[in-house]
């Protein structure tokens, strides 16, 4: 069953008088029980997509889309209230920066209890409810692997180490028992052990409760362990999306190939002391976006036709948008 | 906790020490004999015995003199005024409460008006309400206090005759001074018609309070607005929206407290401005407060009074500011250190 269906999502930002397309025709479909990876360099608009889905963008920015539906209900045309209800019930977000996304003046316990859905509570009186909430909160913490629940619940965000707060954020995301968890770079800046724990936790949640996860990251190694489907983003455009295995075996878009090549762990044939490959140049700023395919100036295969935006082409479940894809003779 | 308390006490003590030192040095810097400036007694009025005692201590070195000075300060022996010959300690004790009363009402009024308006302006950011509140506040901020006070007198006392021109209470009432806060004194006294006295006192309060409150209100409004806008744009507020909380829940549970914490220290810093404005307004409305009293002292070159008044006012400001700072420091959980390593 399709949970989230996004077609041609465009986000325009007003930068010193001119409207710039920060996201240009993004397409993404998330199925139930799927771990969907969203990959791209820093500045490619990954977090913007997340914010556009949950509606946490400034009002001044213009969002347009041909289709942006949650289980068939249109998210863009529905009332703010209805949308908020859906987000409260079915979608949870784990933010990039766990400490900044928590209220510094409330204890973690207060914030976790705030997220527990009130209709799940069975007791009537408020003191019974408080006890019940406390019990639920402790259970949630145990689920995400925080053993010392009392200290954690009574502390303020800044008093707890970063990886524990990240686990706590996952507990918060699980509190409303959502259908979709959006994990926006949840392992940023963490050391390996904490990272593995969090990734394992996310996969377990996916397997045990059949929750879908939109995993936003640039950590290809983590993604290849977890995700089944991948969407590659470059500078606000979706360049390629498809089954992870297919993408790894045969990427059509030069950018996807460059991304895969830049991760040494994926190259089995890499001889010792050989130079590592990387794409020349940097991602363009919003002030200097190239027309057409935005990879143009950096693309090793660019030709004159690339100034026009390429159409999306499809091979089975594999979508790409490139005029001159790799492997196209082999196809 | 005790550490913080100790540090603040230390800071207050050091500041007060420097203030007392300054007031002592002032006696030497003012024209005339230091002894005259310190005691308020003219040398030629002293008896022979007092004179010889004074000469004896004046010959001591300056540290001993300062030690004596501090001893007399704490004993409540602040000298007498040149002009009236009244003891300064009693004078300050009588006039300072009147000023504190006036400033406190003005401060409360500005809080009650400024804070909600600041919130409204911030919540309607970039909309008509915001812009109009901002321009009104700019207007209020730019009006000089003395001019505003005169205008208020001109319109409401002289033209319309709604409010009395000057003083604290109608001369008909004889209020025994117990605490020197007029409202409390009225409530404490039992010989007079309390209701009529209260009404009279309030009618006298309105104009001076208003003219001080206007500037402070606009200040509070602007500070609040800035802080609320910043808080509402911070990441955890967006995160709270993304968790599906309603705007009301977000504002009530996360917005208000976080917006207020940075405001309070800024407001504490506005207290001296408030007091200065109160002094000006006092002398316009002939309010028997410390400001009016000090300005009279300055006119009459009453050096002992200037010294004592300045010391009293600055001690008040220091203690007020420090105690607000301390309250914030102790209540802000962000400043609390992690007590243990956690899992």
Automatic annotation (TrEMBL), chain A:
- UniProt entry keywords in alphabetical sequence: ATP-binding, Cell inner membrane, Cell membrane, Membrane, Nucleotide-binding, Transport
Query: Predominant location of this chain?
Result: membrane
This protein's GO cellular component annotations are:
plasma membrane
The answer to keyword Cytoplasm applying to this record is no
Q: Where in the cell?
A: Cell inner membrane
Q: Which CDD domains match?
A: ABC_NikE_OppD_transporters
Q: Which residues form the ABC transporter domain?
A: 4-260
- PROSITE patterns, sorted: ABC_TRANSPORTER_2 (PS50893)
Which processes are annotated in GO (biological process)? peptide transport
Q: Which SMART domains match?
A: AAA
Instruction: Report whether ATP-binding shows up as a keyword of the record.
Output: yes
Q: Which GO terms describe its molecular function?
A: ATP binding; ATP hydrolysis activity
**Any single Pfam family the record assigns to this protein:** ABC_tran
Membrane topology per record: Peripheral membrane protein
> What SUPFAM superfamilies is this protein classified in?
P-loop containing nucleoside triphosphate hydrolases (SSF52540)
Q: Which PANTHER family match?
A: OLIGOPEPTIDE TRANSPORT ATP-BINDING PROTEIN APPD, PUTRESCINE EXPORT SYSTEM ATP-BINDING PROTEIN SAPD
The family annotation for this protein states: Belongs to the ABC transporter superfamily.
Full protein name: Peptide transport system ATP-binding protein sapD
Tell me the organism: Paraglaciecola arctica BSs20135
Automatic annotation (TrEMBL), chain B:
What CDD domains does the entry give? TM_PBP2
A GO CC annotation recorded here is: plasma membrane
Please give the Gene Ontology molecular function terms for this protein. dipeptide transmembrane transporter activity
Residue span(s) of domain ABC transmembrane type-1: 96-328
- Keyword set for this entry? Cell inner membrane, Cell membrane, Membrane, Transmembrane, Transmembrane helix, Transport
On the tree of life, the source organism's domain of life is Bacteria
Q: Which family does it belong to?
A: Belongs to the binding-protein-dependent transport system permease family. OppBC subfamily.
Name of the molecule in the record: Dipeptide transport system permease protein
Write down the species. Answer: Paraglaciecola arctica BSs20135
Write the gene name. dppB
